Amino acid sequence: SAGAGGASDAGxxxxxxxxxxxxxxxxxxxxxxxxxDGGGAASGSFMLKNGSSGxxxxxxxxxxxxxxxxxxxxxxxQDTSGGAFRILNVGTAQCIHSRSANAWLVKxxxxxxxxxxxxxxxxSLRNLNTGGCLDLNRRASRIGLTTTxxxxxxxxxxxxx
Length: 161
Fold this sequence. Notes:
This protein is 0% helix and 27% strand. By secondary structure, it is mainly β.
């Protein structure tokens, strides 16, 4: 598993603590241009650690936060257009989607409805379908990740590790 700034055993993680959109390498889709911060998506794989829970996003049923370990917690940003990108899970080869605000995130074929994101302020990831930011579930169950109104809170901050 990977701690903050530590190396990952899940393959390809840079081990650096940078915000979710701070990549400067070539675009994953070969476009070489419109990445999360306008400078191209970072090449390689990484985990996304939440600023509030200290846990990593992983693909389960539903998409949730938990241990920073295994391919289900390893992602790549895949450029689409206009500065947007998909969040591709390495373990499932599927992308993260938000079908509606406050609903659980789901995994589905890349290119499906609700799967485009943009880098927001303070390390947030904003879904183009809902307009909301990737967030911890605020319901009583606390199960599953969702998109909510972007507030800049720690629970909406995602750091690459």
